[in-house]
Amino acid sequence: PSGTTITKAISCNGHDASQQPMIHGSIVYVEGTLNLYGYDNNKNTLNSTSIVVGNGGKVILNGAVDISNTGRIVVLPGGELTGANGSSLKVTNGAKCYNAGTINFAGELNTNGSDFYNNGTINVTTLRNTSGGKITNFGSIIAGNNTGAADAYNCEFINGCFWKYTGDAGIGQLTMLENSRLEIGGKAEFAQNFTTTDPDPAATHNVLMANSVIKVKDLYPTN
Is the pTM value of this prediction over 0.85? Predict the structure, then answer.
């Protein structure tokens, strides 16, 4: 609840006396402050559990948080997800995640094949997408890097506003909407979804709409 700070280690993959057990399919709604303090190798495993951060709410990551199966993360306007240095958040394949507030921590956000929609602010050290999926941005995304084309080759990127990697980054199938901007401060690996030397006529190509801008330091197209 609002005005309350709770520190919990949450797990949905079995539990012991040191954990807070959660029912499969639960939704944790946060209007106060929820400090997710890891218990087992500093990790919280939320199997089919969703976290919704309401207006004025804050979720603080301490260690790793894995949200799997039908679980997802939703940050509403006025909500905040932050974390201790080196924390990580990994969301499930296929989940529909949404951020209209603020996600800001020095660590890793792994969208991991989810359908991740950003209409707020994301500022993280590493933004990964290890199992494809889709990231749609109509807000502001600033990240240090990802792990290159291997991280992005089967992920769809739709950018309608401002998206920046300060270091090296891989970019998957890309759609730049009108007046959008993508910046990569290091090597930009634009992954292609075909392996032949000639473009595959069935492939879906990158799209740049009117007044969209891509600014990179080094361009490295892959095949």
Answer: yes
